[in-house]
Amino acid sequence: MSVVPPNPLVRFIEVRKSYDGKTDAVRSLDLDVHAGEFLTLLGPSGSGKTTTLTMLAGFEQPTSGRIFVGDEDVTSVPVDKRGIGMVFQNYALFPNMSVAQNIAFPLTVRRVPRAEIGRKVAQALAMVRLDGLADRRPQQLSGGQQQRVALARALVFEPRLVLLDEPLGALDRQLREQMQYELKQLHRRLGVTMVYVTHDQVEAMTMSDRVAVFSTGRLRQVDEPRRLYEEPDSLFVAQFLGESNALAATVARRNGMRCAVRVSNGATIEATAVGRCSPGDDVDLVLRPEKVAVGAAVQTCANRFAAQIAEATFLGDQLRVRLAAFDRDDFVLKLPNAAGQIALEPGSPIEIGWRAEDCRALAR
Amino acid sequence: MPSLAERLRGGRAAYWLIMMPAIVMLVLVYLVPLLDVLLTSVTDPKPGLGNYGLLFTSASVQNTLLTTLRIAAITTFFTLLLGYLVSYAMRGATSRQQRLMLFCVLLPFWISILVRSFAWLTLLRGSGPINGALVGMGLIDEPLELVRNETGVLIGMVHVMLPYAVLTLYANMRGIDVGLVAAARSLGASRLQAFRMVFLPLTRPGLIGAGTLVFILSLGFYVTPTLLGGGKVLMVAEYIAVQINDTLRWGLGTMLATALMIAVLGTLWALSRVIDVKRLFGA
């Protein structure tokens, strides 16, 4: 994994945005974007990720707070003076221009000499592998090709920063994966900083150096994809990124990072304490379904419980098993479809277990 | 059981039957008189193309046609200019404002053209409120000659034509993705550049459509030039009326009517070479 030097290219300082003066679309956002990184803003719709991007692009002004790009305070710099490349979800290609004219647009408005425009457009076309289509109209291209034109147009004037607003949302799955790969390749090759908005967590995990998770206008956590998945700070992140078993619990003891919590049916679970919680406090206990062991592996686990199989679903490479445990029937575990799988008959008892490290008690 | 083709044929016949009254009506009150006009133009006062020869020989016919073309062209220019501004403002307004603006644009449609012409006459005449206000403010010494001349005709015609231009342009502008202008801005275009390079070219079909519509309708104006021109501005419709009603030169009148129709059809044909006319008029 590449090590990103921590010098921020973009800095949001206590940025707040309210459209109606009553509710905040973005509340007090502090976020740094490092030079050269691929940062994804991830969240469900209405979480504030797109508002954050539009403020960075300059389409919207923050209600309060400041935004810096490099050393410059761009908070009130108009959109056309920010020098940021942007790719839109619906491509926003100009239908009255050819592919080449579309790509040349940022250079034309900057009054770049004609010969240089020609050279750069040719380079950009080659970069997105669209040589030969220069004279086509955007309407004559497929969705994937249109997206490549939009990308070339955002990159052709060599901006330091490129913003991408759900650029692959309109493509079918196969093309999408292909474009994800190409986009990532371009990012590596050009070293340009990219800020990417998506609601697709798989896309975020696949492409990003870091992911910033938003919900209800708040930045919940920003981290490398792996850490975000393994060490979520909040119930929201644990459930939005992948799947988690979540149990309401109360802290019984705490010893540094380690704690013991009691769940509703009286069982005590050894867990890792996250955040400020002391005995008596309510916490959310989260556990990834694939971290739950069955069979012989259970014997080495700090937590061991009896459960009953409610339902087993075959998913090809894995089995998804729903269990009745802790007075609930939605406790999920995932088992790889490996050789020597144990029988999973609904109604039969099963012993499950997991390590304290894999189970996080999140302070509320 | 009848085959699919038979049933389709049966359906066809029923359609024709339903349309029959309208077709008969159209033939009797529209096509027959029109053919009569065509026929008269080549038979009265004597058979031949003598009437059409007047297009090339008669100075008064030529003057009338030139005046008509000039007034129609100037009307089209100003109507497009004003209509563009109004439609552009409507496009940027909130939906509540849009409804109000649309209502104001359509309001003149419900007022008789006669009433509107006389209202302009009252407003624009030498001792009218507009001249009165300008003189009163000391901006001018003598009242401006705003009516009973070509200026008056143009003001009146632009007023009548404006809703047509606004509706056509607004329909076109509503179809333009606002995201395109935003995209242009984000790529470094100033407001003016974004307008000139992206928005304006995308409104070209609307401009051509509205321009053609206004031009064609302007060619046939009768009441407005007669009332606001004060007898000094003779457009072809009034000229035709004079031939039919006063001088009784039916051949000349019908010839000019035919020429006008050919000019309109010719304009539409020329337009169809450039854009999709059917789509433009919502077909």
Total of DSSP H or I helical runs spanning 4+ residues of chain B: 14
The major sheet of chain B is characterized as: none
Q: Major β-sheet of chain A, in short?
A: 6 strands, mixed
Do you know the CATH architecture of the largest domain in chain B? Orthogonal Bundle
Which blocks of ≥5 consecutive residues of chain A have pLDDT under 50? none
Top CATH class of the largest domain in chain A: Alpha Beta
CATH fold-type name of the largest domain in chain B = MetI-like fold
Structural class of chain B comes to mainly alpha
Proportion of β residues of chain A?
A: 35-45%
Form type of chain B: globular
How many independent structural domains of chain B?
2
In angstroms, what separates the terminal alpha carbons of chain B?
36 Å
Q: Say what the CATH topology of the largest domain in chain A is.
A: Rossmann fold
Distance between the termini of chain A: 32 Å
Bin the helical content of chain A: 10-25%
Mean pLDDT of chain B: 90
Determine the fraction of residues in helical runs of chain B and give it as a percent range.
over 70%
Q: Care to count the β-strands of chain A? A: 20
Alpha-carbon Rg of chain A, integer? 25 Å
Which superfamily, in CATH terms, is the homologous superfamily of the largest domain in chain A? P-loop containing nucleotide triphosphate hydrolases
